[in-house]
Every structure is written in C-alpha cells, then in structure tokens.
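Methods, example record. To illustrate the input and output format used throughout this study, we show the complete record for Metalloprotease PmbA. The sequence lines were provided to the predictor; the line carrying structure tokens was produced by it.
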Amino acid sequence: MSLTTKQELQQQEEILREAVSSALSFAKKAGATAEVAVTKVAGLSVSTRLEQTENIEFNNDGALGISVYLGKRKGNASTSDLQPASIQQAVESALAIAKYTSEDDCTGLADKEMMAFESIDLDLYHHAEIDVDQAVQLAIETEHHALNSDERIVNSDGATFNSHSGIRVYGNTHGMLQSYLSSRYSLSCSVISAYQDQLERDYEYTISRQFNQLATPEWVGKQAGLKAVERLNPRQLATCEVPVIFYNDVATGLIGHLAGAISGGALYRKSSFLQDKLGEKILPDWFAISERPHLLQQLASSAFDSEGVRTENREIITDGILQTYLLTSYSGRKLGMQTTGHAGGIHNWLVKPNRTGGLDTLLKEMGTGLLVTEMLGSAINGVTGEYSRGAAGFWVENGEICYPVAEITIAGKLQEMYQNMVAVADDIEHRSNIQTGSILLDKMKVSGQ
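The corresponding predicted structure is encoded as:
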C-alpha cells in the first residue's frame, strides 16, 4: 500500500506498534529483555536531465529489528515480514545468536529512568498531495532555470525532487512504546559551466519537513547556475599561511569533527584528539554550541534517541569549555558515565554567532585570505587531530572576492584550528543537523603550486 495520506500513515503506524509489541511479548516469554525498532519510509523520487524525465521511483521500505539480552549476552535479528510467525522466528533467531555471543558487562537496555515514556509531538509530519506529473514538472522547471541562467552553462547533471513520509516505532521491555510520523521534501539541481576547454560543476538544493517551505524551482536553478559559473577559470595559489573562512555549509563539517571527537565510541577506544577534555577550554572564550532536540519541524529533532532515551536541551560548549560528551548507554557504561541520549546521532546543534552581517562581515574582517566553499577528500587523524583536505573556493583581497581557486590543500591540527577561530557569522545554514554560520579562522596552511 502506498502511504499517501495521513490516515493511511496512522493506520500503518498502529500495525507497526502491534508488531513491536508482539516481538517484545515473545522475548519476555523467553526470559529475555529486548528492544525493538521499526522505521518505515515510503515516497516518490523523480529525476530529470536536460529537461527530460530520466527516472521515476516509488519506494516503500522498512524492517523490524530486534535486540535481545540474555544476561550480558546480546543477539540481533530483523524481518521485513510482520506476520506473527515471522516475528516470532526473528525473536528466536536473536535468542539463538545471544546464547553464543561473549558476555559484555556494558551491554543491555538503557536505564529505565532514562526512557521517554511520555513522548512530545514535534510537528514533524506535514502531508502534501504531490503526484508524478507535479514532481516531474518541479524538477524540469528547476533545471530549466539553471540551464538558462547563463550562456556559460553548457550541460546538466540533472535535477531531483523527493517526497517521503516515514514512521518510526520504538519499544522495549521496560514498558516503553513510542512512535511518530515524519515527512521530508527536497529539490536539487546540478549543472556544468564551461570556459574554453575547462568545465566546472556546482549544485544547489532545498529541503524541509513542509513542502510549501521549499525554496522555489527558480531560486534553486539560478543558484546552481550562478555557483557553477562563479567557479570558472580558477587559479592555483602559491603555498602560504593565511586566514581562512569556511563558508557556512562547509563549516558544518568542521563542527562535525568536534561531534565525532566527543562521541563515546571514540573516547572509550581512546581514539580521540579530545580525550579527557571534559570541562576544559577547547575553543575561544566567546564560542558556544547548544543542542535543542525539541525544535518544531526541524530535520534533526527527536523526542527520544534510538535506545528510547529521552532527549534534552544541552549546552555542548559554553565560553569555549566542553560541557558534555555524547554518550550511548553502552559507551556511557564503558566510561563510567550515564547516557546523554545520543544513540543515533546529534539533534539540532546551534552554533552561536558572534558577528552580524553574514559572510560580507567576515570577508571585510579577514581582509586578505581564502574563502573555502568546497572540501574534497579527507585525511583526518581522529587520534592526533591532524587535518589535511583538498579544497576549492575564492581568493579574497581587501574584503572582496577576487577570483576562484582550485587544486589546493588546507592543513592544520583540529585542536589548533578550533582555538584559532576568530568569528562565526550570522548566515546560518539551516539545512544541516549542525546549524552554523560561516567561520573565520585566524590562519591555516594552504598548499598550492
């Protein structure tokens, strides 16, 4: 059945809740503790190329996954068949696996008092009636605007429209059973520009829980074309050490390395450059990151994590000081600490800006240096913090963008890069689970010719 209306989704949600309850019942009868999760996604994806339909895909995917615990032994199994016999067979398979796994003192359900027994509605589902013809037209219109935005746009990698609805159900033998609906719509376009015999590619996209909150096809198309043209005729730089601005959608990755370094898995394995830094100053005095998992309609909002632990507002960085690690129940036990509700990832990190006026403000403040708009490849050592990545962007002089640059490498140590942050602008990138503006670093090594 195609999930096309909220009523159909709600009916399917009840079926999935019953399936989860059934699996938990089978596990309890066998004397095990257990947790069961189902995520079901259905929707439409349409792609075009050169304003012709290239692909139309409907999907309706999902499976029930169960983890059972026999003392300190764990077994996992899954099934896409939600008939009672199949669910029982999956539980029995998980139990059989658990009997032969090694004991682990840190395994097991998250503590009962941490459970989100009362889940809040975060308004994550917004229905929109979108048929195939409308989806195709949106993609074609986007690509049309891109191809006609500049005579130097010579080809297209295509445009894509996606419309998806999802159901998430989680339950465990602590007595928790929660579920919610969600929706996600996106529109993207990628085109190719040409200068003499040189080609450059760039893209743009828009994404939202609400269809009517997407940017227009005209904006997406023209932005993709503009960005591709701006990259034409890039130069290489001589090796130098200069100030660097990470443009907002690239800056999300820079902060993402911080999230990885304070995650429990890296910490208990002693593979983090921020080992034992809790409560210490790792960023400038003015730097702050807050986590807000309950923001309405946001892409990374969730009332509970993938272990059923309730999510909470947290301060990650205050006055440059690391306030918390990011722990699951397992990594928390490994470290002698408590879960922070981060099984499955982070939830709406808000990096506080300390400059107004957006990118223009940072360009003027930097004066002369490098604006990075794309990262290529990755050579990052999570243990030492050594950072070296290919990059492209623009050379800036006297606060003005002068020309594009390519085939360069930027390098440093993440610990020093974080300390060398000078400013965060207020041009916030809202399409990521890390919401930050462009970030100015005092200096980095740039390797070119």
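Annotations derived from this record:
The chain has a mean pLDDT of 96.
The longest helix spans residues 6-29.
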